[in-house]
Amino acid sequence: MTNDYRFEFRPYQRRFLRSLTTNHGNWDIREGIILRLTDESGKVGWGEIAPISWFGSETLEQALDFCRQLPEEITDEIIFSIPDELPACQFGFESAWEWGSGKWGNEFFSMPNAPCPMPNAQSFSALLPSGEAALNQWETLWQQGYRTFKWKIAVNAIADELEIFESLIHTLPASTKLRLDANGGLSYKEANLWLRTCDNLKANAELPIEIEFIEQPLPVEQFQQMLELSTSYETAIALDESVATLGQLAACHQQGWRGIFVIKPGIVGSPSRLRKFCHQHQIDTVFSSVFETAIARLAALQLAAELSQNNRAIGFGIDHFFEQEETWFQSLWNDL
Known about the structure:
Blueprint: E1 4-22, E2 25-39, E3 44-49, H1 60-69, E4 73-75, H2 76-79, H3 87-100, E5 124-128, H4 133-143, E6 148-152, H5 158-171, E7 177-181, H6 188-203, E8 210-215, H7 223-232, E9 237-239, H8 246-254, E10 260-263, H9 265-268, H10 271-281, E11 284-287, H11 294-307, E12 314-317, H12 328-335
Parallel strand pairs: 5-6, 5-12, 6-7, 7-8, 8-9, 9-10, 10-11
Antiparallel strand pairs: 1-2, 1-4, 2-3
């Protein structure tokens, strides 16, 4: 039996408190689309489309075009036949469908403008700003309970970053885990230098912190080199940009990747197909944010809780990048 839903959507914009700097450039405003599906009995499901086109998803414009061409009444069939070229749309519509169907048992989220329910900060990885700013920020986050940090590299000159890194590892408290994220921005030579540096630290028993992994050291097209590096060093490598969508995830697994997969639920594609893949292959995952609002985060955390294997901190420690506006959602829906 096919169900019918009344479909509504609203675009949104949220400004970062300060520009987010990665190897892909600066990012100032997070834009996305909030979806609302209402079934015949009046049950409401919320979803969010939060694309990052430079990371491998569709553009915001493509997502808006898709939403605009849909009728006001849509069916299960429409939701589950969104093409793979629109992975953020697949995620948004399917998670709205799951929310509305009570699949998560969270019927109390009738209006998602409350702060997102959080596991404790220790199960989250907090994102540090790139460059020297990291040296001033970690302490506040540590006091909030975070014990795993991610630091963006390949943003400034490698000699400068290695120097800051040296300071950072000696100021972070014992038992901290640190992840280095290059966003595909290192050369092969630089990747070797970072991995060698981390291996040397691992060998130094006096260093009290753990370098957990280097994330996406090389560009997506250099998969074979990353595969080779992953067997040449003790320090683990995690793929991120290389596995942005389900198709890429499956392809890298098929080509022999058995290291860590960073999964961004907001842009990976269909949640039901992701579940199937993870159950089938038992991959080592780290679930990570796409700077979504509480709506997509609920759906993403739901998947992380179901599918995380090795007790790795999940990359959702990003609240400090936005102003906390608890009423923004209500006003978004009512004002438009």
